[in-house]
Amino acid sequence: MNKNIAILAGDGIGPEVTAEAVKALDAIAETFGYQFQYNDALIGAAAIDATGNPFPEATEESCKSADAILFGAIGDPKYDNDPNAKVRPEQGLLKMRKNLGLFANVRPVSSYDALLPISPLKENIIKGTDFVVFRELTGGIYFGEPRGRSEDGNTAFDSCVYSKSEIERIAHLAFKAAMNRRKKLTLVDKANVLATSRLWRETVKDLSSQYPEVELDFMFVDNAAMKIIQNPKDFDVVLTENMFGDIITDEASVISGSLGLLPSASLGLKSSLFEPIHGSYPQAAGKGIANPIGAILSAAMLLEYAFDLKEECQIIKDAVNSALNIGYGTEDIFPDEGKSTSEVGDFISQSIVNQYKTESV
Amino acid sequence: MNKNIAILAGDGIGPEVTAEAVKALDAIAETFGYQFQYNDALIGAAAIDATGNPFPEATEESCKSADAILFGAIGDPKYDNDPNAKVRPEQGLLKMRKNLGLFANVRPVSSYDALLPISPLKENIIKGTDFVVFRELTGGIYFGEPRGRSEDGNTAFDSCVYSKSEIERIAHLAFKAAMNRRKKLTLVDKANVLATSRLWRETVKDLSSQYPEVELDFMFVDNAAMKIIQNPKDFDVVLTENMFGDIITDEASVISGSLGLLPSASLGLKSSLFEPIHGSYPQAAGKGIANPIGAILSAAMLLEYAFDLKEECQIIKDAVNSALNIGYGTEDIFPDEGKSTSEVGDFISQSIVNQYKTESV
Ligand SMILES: [Mg+2]
Ligand SMILES: [Mg+2]
């Protein structure tokens, strides 16, 4: 296997954690005899500093010619805190999603036995949690027109708009994911009130005949916000629109006990991007304390979603688990004996190599 | 003090739990020498059965001439499960809110020491939680126009609309509540994306100069959905728009461990209504197992918000606490030795009377 991976490390702790994710990919490449080519490209504040543009054309070209994109994080206080800044790092992110057509955000949520003590939820509630949320990323009220103010400035309005085709393309991805998992799909909406939610429900119901093995159910978003905390183990694949997904993915992220662990994917028809859900955390940059596991698990998702390498993905996940199980991790999850970013990355890469050796004996 | 209270007991367990709330009000009236007149009126399925209308004119008159409204619950499977039903109990609720101008939904959230074991959250996270959410109830995307489908049926749209005056009237209530509490107000919005949220932020910021003692902060709704679970003790008064409020109030309701405990108020300029947040729970109706505490605490809120009787409100809350502290409650919260609905109501009323006697010695 020979693949090109665009590396958009970005700002703050982005480069540090991405370096550890690349180590994990190298460990897989070495073990299985694959060739991964990495092409570094600029994004965010780093790109503004160098070119004035947070998503330069050269980066867009790199992304479009790559087989997958590994992304770090963006954002720098130098731009965030300047109300007069004309160009902001976050604009790079929105432009990238749009230009690459990344319409589906995928966020796995699971509990780790070694981290049960740091979750705000009780052990019996979360132990064994394993679900994944498919959030529509380029439609809905965050983009709908018209939006703005009345002429007198006293009334404001936003529009939530969805077309059947926007719903179908992400619904297919969610049904397919369910087929590879426990075959349960929950559509989260507010169909008792919203016209867009009724179109979601109707469209997803129609598609379900193509996936007869998948059990489809519907849940109102307010109820889902309760059930994610009360019975997170009940979910397998959750499908939802942009704003509801924004809220419930962040809500669900508390289950594991640390944002530093959580990976995500943003999928389009031609491109796919993988990134930890944490931000650029500029205060921690350069200190060697950033948790690389979110980035490393993003590399694992890349193998599964972009290259269809399920076994290799699982090997990375197992290596992460084995580190957590012996208490080997950064200070955010193991305050008493936190290791450095690169120590954790090295440990995980080494255990990828060792794991495979053991398995193949 | 001489007050008229409209009693809209409704369907399912509504009448049973409302009867216990009235016992608590009677205990207060007896103790303090007040006169409370109760006027029963029909609503929901009970009203459809009797009159064909889920919110009959006579009920509307009763509500409008009352000093406060005590509400039970509505909903009956006979109508809910009939897709051909032309009139539904829930229409009574929406019509009532609209005709009475109930624009602010108020939901207190607190933890009870005796119930820490039944919460899905860890004790150290929730112990001492005490906040209240003010949710705008008659505007936003649940009511905005235009809404519907394109002619070909392939596109659906909803509109979120807010005017400055809609925001101001509920913001004043929230600021005043904060003045009576720990003087902290958190506006939950999505101002980095939505035009309506930017109007909320601007309007609330402008009003804050009238409440200089209140510390105002802003939180994006996705972040709030995390923080409510991670640090619920950090909140005092939360103010938010209709849909965000729908989601985060239900999310926050899991903290106490049982929906059966939670009261709410819906406030307008001329009317105010008080109801437990639980539904009509028809499967439990008539069995004497419904938890009356949500209804009893709604009566306590009625005393505080409608009659400005803060001490009397606190006496009911203390009586509820004393029952919980000795493990006296229905089976949903004390599965091993659940008492009946009326036993719990009697116990609480009796302890209201006793408590005052003890205090006034
Ligand atoms: Mg978010
Ligand atoms: Mg709700």
Structure write-up:
The structure is a homodimer of 361-residue chains. The radius of gyration of chain A is 20 Å and the shape is globular. The longest helix of chain A is centred in the C-terminal third of the chain and has 20 residues, at 341-360. The mean pLDDT of chain A is 95. In chain A, the strands form 2 sheets. The first copy, chain A, has a 10-stranded mixed sheet, with helices on both faces. A two-stranded antiparallel sheet of chain A has the order 6-7. Chain A has 2 domains: 1-112 and 256-361, Isopropylmalate Dehydrogenase (3-Layer(aba) Sandwich), CATH 3.40.718.10; 130-254, Isopropylmalate Dehydrogenase. Helices cover 43% and strands 21% of the residues of chain A. The first copy, chain A, has 13 helices and 12 strands. Chain A has helices at 14-32, 45-51, 57-65, 77-80, 89-100, 123-126, 164-179, 195-207, 221-230, 242-252, 293-307, 310-325, 341-360, and strands at 2-10, 35-40, 68-73, 104-110, 130-136, 144-149, 155-163, 184-189, 215-220, 237-240, 263-267, 272-276. By secondary structure, chain A is α/β, with parallel strands linked by helices. In chain A, α1 (14-32) links the parallel β1 (2-10) and β2. In chain A, α1 packs parallel to α13 (341-360), α7 crosses α8 and α11 packs antiparallel against α12 (310-325). At the A-B interface, β6, β7, α8, α9 and α10 of A face β6, β7, α8, α9 and α10 of B. Bound molecules: magnesium ion (2 copies). One magnesium ion is lined by residues 246, 250 of chain B.
